[in-house]
Specification:
Residues 1-18 have a biased composition (Low complexity). Residues 22-94 form the DUF5632 domain. Residues 1-23 are annotated as: Disordered. By secondary structure, this protein is an alpha+beta fold. The protein has one domain. It is built from 2 helices and 2 strands. Strands 1-2 form a two-stranded antiparallel ribbon. Strand 1 (43-48) and strand 2 (53-58) form a beta hairpin. The protein starts with a helix and ends with a helix.
Length: 94
C-alpha cells in the first residue's frame, strides 16, 4: 500500500509542475501580446486569489495601462484607485 501512496504523490507533483509550466507559458504569451502593442513599456503578469485572477501591470504610474492597448475579451480592468507612486512591479503583483 505504501508504494501506491508514493506513486500517487509523485504523479500529483508531476501534474502540479506541468500545470505551473502551462500557466507560466500562458502568462508569458499574455505579456508578449501586450509588449507587441506597446514595446516601450515594461509589462508583467502574475496570478492572485489562488490562481483564479490574472493580473497585468506596467511600470507606468502605478500599473496604468494605456487606453489604446487592446486587451483580450475576458480581461477586465480594475477601477481607478489611489496606488502607491513608489510601487514597483513586484509590489503591484503582490
Amino acid at each position: 500500500m505504501a508504494g501506491a501512496t508514493v506513486t500517487a504523490t509523485v504523479g500529483a507533483t508531476t501534474g502540479d509542475a506541468a500545470n505551473r509550466s502551462a500557466e507560466q507559458q500562458r502568462l508569458r504569451r499574455f505579456v508578449d501580446a501586450m509588449a507587441r502593442q506597446e514595446p516601450n513599456i515594461s509589462w508583467a503578469a502574475g496570478l492572485r486569489d489562488g490562481g483564479r485572477t490574472t493580473l497585468l501591470v506596467t511600470d507606468l504610474a502605478g500599473g496604468w495601462i494605456p487606453p489604446h492597448v487592446r486587451l483580450p475579451a475576458h480581461v477586465t480592468l480594475l477601477e481607478p484607485a489611489p496606488r502607491r507612486h513608489d510601487a514597483n512591479v513586484e509590489d503591484l503583483l503582490g
